[in-house]
Structures are given as structure tokens and as C-alpha cells.
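[agent] plan:
  1. take the single chain provided in the ticket
  2. run structure prediction with default settings
  3. attach C-alpha cells to the ticket
  4. add a short note for the reviewer (M.T.)
[agent] executing step 1
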Amino acid sequence: MADLSFSIRAEWAGSGREGEGVMETGGEHLRYSAPSSMGGKGVGTSPEELLLAAVTSCYSGTLFRVLERQGLPVERLRIETAGVVEGYPRDPRYGRVTVSPVILGGDPSRTPAYEAAAQQSRDLCFIGKTIRDYLEYVVGDVAVKAER
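[agent] step 2 finished; step 3 output follows
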């Protein structure tokens, strides 16, 4: 098995919640700071949102692949991901991340099979495997829509 390496470059200025940065990833530049809900500048995205983005991007690709392999119709997916930070401000940590997929171009009569695939994808997504021992990582409602 091969080890793969990934890297990101970031520049940050300012102390703690007063600071902000720019991150280069995938050829894109993202501004980030602590969210205003946590007393930060609320500029661009935040580390909290970036964690959810990592989970969502991995889960969506995994779910699409699982659906195709199981022969379940799908045109595209919409994933709504919610995270809960517990213990703020004294000891903040993510306590729960919920992914709720909407399958577009699916077959609503096969909803139980889509729900099983959504759960299986949660267990296969490697970002999810990385976080699931540290926080509650669950699949929420699974919607299947025939519309594309």
C-alpha cells in the first residue's frame, strides 16, 4: 500500500479570534477566520466549516459510487451537512456531524435501499473513518426524488 501526501499553504495574521488568513488549496484561495458566532471576524470560511466541507466532499463522492455500484438510479446528489460544537467557550469540540443526502434522479420506491447505501457510505468514506472515533458522525434524513 502506498502512502499519499497532501499539502495546503496558509498565511495568517492576527492573534486568535482577531486574526484572519488566506489558504491556498486546489489552486483556489480561501479566506478564513474564526466565525462571528465564536467572537471572531467572520471573514470568509472558518475551520469549523472546512471540517464539514471535508466530510461532505468525501461522503458525497463515496455515496455516488456506492449507488452506482448497487445499480440504484442517481443523477446527482445534494448533501446537507450540519455540525454541532459542544462546550463552547470553555472546552469547544465538535460533538456531532450529520450528513443528510438528497438523491436526485432516484427511484423513490426503493428508498430503503438508498437509506442502506447512505449508511454504508458513511462507513466507507475515509474522512468519516478518520473522525468517527472522536465525535458522533451520523446519517440524517435520506430523501429520494425522481426529479433530476
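[agent] step 4 note for reviewer: The longest strand covers residues 93-104.
[agent] ticket updated
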